[in-house]
Structure formats: structure tokens, C-alpha cells
Amino acid sequence: MLTIKLPVNQIPALWSSIKFASTRVDAVEVEDQQKYLNKLLVDLLSDKAQCFIRIDDDRQLIALAITHIAVDDVTDDKILFVRCLYSFRPVSAEQWRSELPLVTNFAKISGCKKIAFKSGSRRVHELATTHGFNEDHRYFVLEV
Length: 144
Fold this sequence. Notes:
alpha+beta, Aminopeptidase, 5-stranded mixed β-sheet, 4 helices, 35% helix, globular
């Protein structure tokens, strides 16, 4: 297995998988998908967002993560925000653990002080806590 940061020029080759995963993870409503995907594509092609992929020995896509660097409004600290984490087939906690240094190193090289994400998935919450993440905030929504 191999995990890499996908070069910008390879984004179009995996765009259908990126679209599928990101709209699932972010639960994007059908009427909002075009605008959401246009912005995501622009961000990925301009390297404002990054795509990390995990492939198996046969070069089949196993999982992907989409990140972007945000800046805290108060502290001005850079934060690597994981906006999408999707697995196309089961991945063990140990496999996720072995991949964390790649993202951590990317965050450090990019000058980030933290790695953060939001997720409604209990499985992602479990993975995060077993990999050293701490809960910082909770996000609640009321439809009006």
C-alpha cells in the first residue's frame, strides 16, 4: 500500500472518485452539488486544497483525504483542516495510524500548528481519538 499527495496535474484523472467521496462525506444536497464541486475543483487545481490518496499494490484506489490550510481568525495560526476522509473499502485502524505521519509532516512543512476536522461519523471519531486527536468543539445545527 502507498499513500501520496496527489499532484495537481493528476486531479482530473481521479475527479470522479473525488466528487463521489466529497459529496458523500459533506452530505451535499443535489441542488448545491454543482457550486460545491466547482469550488472544490478550483481549490484542488490551484493547490488551495490538497488530495491525499491511498492505493494498493495493483494501483487501485483504497481511500482519499482532502485537506486545506485555514488560518485561525484570532491567533493567526495555520491549521491543516481535513475536509474529507473517505475509504472505498475497509481500512484498519493500524493502516490509518501508519498514514498519519505523511499528513502530519505535510502540516509541519506547511507551517501548521494543528490538524483539525469535523465529522458526523462515529467511526471517524473513534479513529481520531485512538490516533491522539482531542475533541475541541461540537457543531450543532437547527434547520429553520
